[in-house]
Write a structure and sequence with these properties.
Layout: H1 2-15, H2 19-50, H3 54-90, H4 103-172, H5 175-200
Length: 201
């Protein structure tokens, strides 16, 4: 209840009135206008149609009363809707709002807000720094991998050239002759080695 009273006091300071008093004022004004309207309408109808007929005048008055009752029902229902809408969407006091009467508390509130803002900024900066360092590390690893791949590609190219050269040599000379030549030379070398061994013995 104390919190509710505090809200009403704060609303009065901010708006110059309480939201409930504002809605009540609209409701009372509408009721007055409705009463006045049907009162005048009853007079006009009585003068135009009753023309001194007591029974007809009574029916006109009863009809006006019924219309007033229906209007009040509609007004009550729509005023309730309007009150809910105004309290939720119009007469809302922001939590951070400080009135001139509360200037004494302004410093502490601003200090708290600044410390929160500074803390969140520090956290964000730290996160960004971590992300940047990760990105730099990934780039370094990528560069090392690129250099390694370039080296492998270079070796593969050299092997390809060497293989092409061997294939070219094989195609130019008869493969059987080449094998025979290698076998003959190998046999000669083996004979020489055997002779050398016997001489040493």
């Amino acid at each position: 209840m104390a919190a509710k009273v505090g809200e009403f006091e704060y609303a009065t300071q901010l708006f110059g009135f309480t939201p409930n008093a504002f809605v009540d004022g609209i409701y009372n004004a509408l009721n007055d206008y409705i009463k006045e309207f049907f009162k005048e309408m009853g007079k006009v109808l009585d003068e135009e149609f009753a023309k001194g007929d007591a029974i007809l005048s009574s029916k006109i008055r009863e009809g006006c009363k019924e219309l007033i009752a229906k209007c009040y029902q509609n007004v009550d229902k729509n005023i309730d809707r309007m009150e809910v809408f105004l309290l939720k969407n119009v007469f809302v006091i922001p939590e951070t709002l400080l009135l001139p009467e509360d200037e004494a508390h302004k410093g502490s509130v601003l200090k708290d807000e600044n410390s929160l803002t500074e803390s969140s900024l520090d956290k964000e900066i730290l996160e960004l720094k971590t992300e940047i360092l990760k990105e730099i590390r990934y780039r370094e690893l990528l560069q090392c991998e690129q250099q390694r791949l370039r080296k492998i590609l270079g070796e593969l190219k050299r092997l390809e050239e060497w293989f092409d050269k061997i294939c070219s040599e094989v195609n130019q000379n008869n493969l059987k002759d080449a094998i025979d030549l290698v076998s003959t030379n190998s046999a000669k070398i083996m004979d020489l080695l055997e002779s050398e061994k016997q001489i040493k013995n």
